Each structure stands twice: as C-alpha cells, then as structure tokens.
Amino acid sequence: MKVDREELLAALNAASLVVDPGHSIEVFSKVWLFEDYVLGFNASGLVIQVPCPIPSIGGVDGKLLAQLLDKTETEKIELITTDDGQLLVTDEDRLHIKMPVLEETDVVHTVSEIPDLNEDHLIEGDAGCFLEEISLPAMLQLSTLKSETMPEFASLVIDLKAGEASHALPQAFIYTSDRQTINRTVFKSWEVKANPGRYLVPLEFVRTLLRLADVFKEGTIAFDKNYIVATNEDGAGLFTRLHQTSNNVDFEDAILRIWPDRKLKPKLMVDIPSELKVVLNQAKLVCKADNDIVRLVVSDGTLKVTAEGGKARYSAALDLENHPPAAVNLNCSRLLQVLPHANKMLLLQNAAAFRGPNKFWRFIAGR
User: Fold this and answer.
1) Is 97 within 8 Å of 88 (Cβ atoms)?
2) pTM of whole model > 0.90?
C-alpha cells in the first residue's frame, strides 16, 4: 500500500511523544501501525491515536522508523508485511528498510479505546482557548518530585466553582505545585454539566498536549470524573485517566495565608525592575555552589539583593518605588525561572508573589 511519507512521519512523531521506547514491557515500547491510524500508549495510561491511511502492521520502533523516514525525501513509500513477519518499507527505488514487528494482542486494543465520557457530568471547552488563555509553559515550570504520594502534586488541579451570581459562568481555579511553589490561574471558557468539584489532570497529559498544540488547537477538550480527552476534527485523540483527589491540599488557603488580611491584592504589586534578571544571574554565580539562596530586602524605595557562597559575597541595589518594606530569603533559581512569565511582583512575609499575563500567578515560599 502506498503511503504519504510526510503524513506517516507526522503521526509517528506524535505517537512517539507518548511511547517509552526503553520500557521493559514490549507493548509499552512500540508505536502501533493499524489500519488507518497510528497508536501510541504508555504504562501510565496516556494514549494517542492519529489518523493515517496505512495498512495494519503491528508494533514497531516508532522513533527509529521516524528517524529513517526523516532522512529521505521520497513522497510516497510502501508498507509491506513480509512472510517472516517483518515490516518492509520501500519506495521501489533506493529506500529499503526492514524492521521487526510485534504482533498485536487484545491488551493493545483494550487500552486504545477512546472512553465514553459521562454526558451528565461533563466539562467541555475549546482546546485552542485552553492552550492560549492559560500560561501553560509557566504553570508546568515545576521541580520534579520523585517520591510524591499525593496526586495533587503530580497534576494540573482544576477546582471548578459555581459562579457568584446565578447566571454567571462557573470558574475553574487551576493550580500546579511542587510544594515550594504554587502556580495559579483562572479559566472560564467551559461548557459545564458537572457539579462543582476538583479534577486532577496528570501533568504528563498537559505537557504532551502542549507539545502537540498544532494538532489539537482546532479541537476540543472534555473531561468527566474519570477521564480527560482531547480530539480534533480529523479524528486524532489524546486521552488518559484522571488522578483521584485526596482532598488534602487546599492551595487557595495556602496562598491566602501569606497575604495581609488573607486577601489577594493585585494593586499592591509593583513592576519587576528590568535589571533584576541580570542581578540575579550575577548573584547565582556566588550562591549556586552553596545553597542557591538570595536575600531580597526592600526599604525606602530600594531593593537590595545579597548572596553568599564560600568566601564570596554579592550585593546589588535596584530602584523599587511604591513597594512596602519587606525582607525575605528565596531560591535564586526559582526567581530566575519566573521572570520570563511575570511583569509584577510583591515580596511578602516569608514568600514572594508574581503576576503575569492570562491571570497567571506564582507564589514562591521563603527559605
């Protein structure tokens, strides 16, 4: 069967984002070529289907096949299953690739079925709005927690709350956290049939969706109590099971505790000095070998940044008008990470708050 090389290559690249080629269980290490679609899934339950007019072959090394196809400019290729059960890829001229194939099993088809969502408990929205109106690169900027047992810290946490007025749209307060940092935003572009509640979207799903933004930006995102599914009009689908909440983490309360009078007050925030990035990079050269901690002190319209490491000491002063007096020790690397995503800041008691476009907030705990 003749196949468009670029179309197959795009499908293989998408599926390879999900598959773990080094997994010890073979079914999780392969990209699956089935009639009219390419399939990828992993042991954590993330699944992707990409439509592609191909014959049914079985499981192959998707990353290797993609790399080989990327090295040729042939427009059309042919996929053939040989008598000894291998895949032959050829253009009947110069290209000739032969590779082993893993036979399909019932397990493969079971895990690849797109779940039917509960229509009575459905939250649905435009994928493009989700990708554009939420600062996902900033929300996903977290330290890896290797031994985390609470699902909230491995999830994009969506707290769906009823609108304040009877006619108001429900609001989704969205959080991510690695315990030292809390990211927060608000999103309203949902069609909601579900009751207010908490939904935990695995971070792996969100990261993959962001990497496949061009595939799904014209599509839809929908979820119920159990699954989240992204689809597009061409029939591509990305889905996984939601984490189940432990209900032990109240992010909003943690945020409010560090604010005066337990109220978020954006008007107190000031513009981030343009020179702060340069100053922090200089400070990091001093403190990185020790504890990566900088001290920020605001007094009389001046922000003083100091750092110590070994026998060295660093100090710099910046103008910072209209900021109340404050003093806090913070992780220098975390400060540098947030600067590209924020334009406002406020130093608080043993914490710092930052705000950026798309209602993005970041709160960094003091040290």
Assistant:
1) yes
2) yes
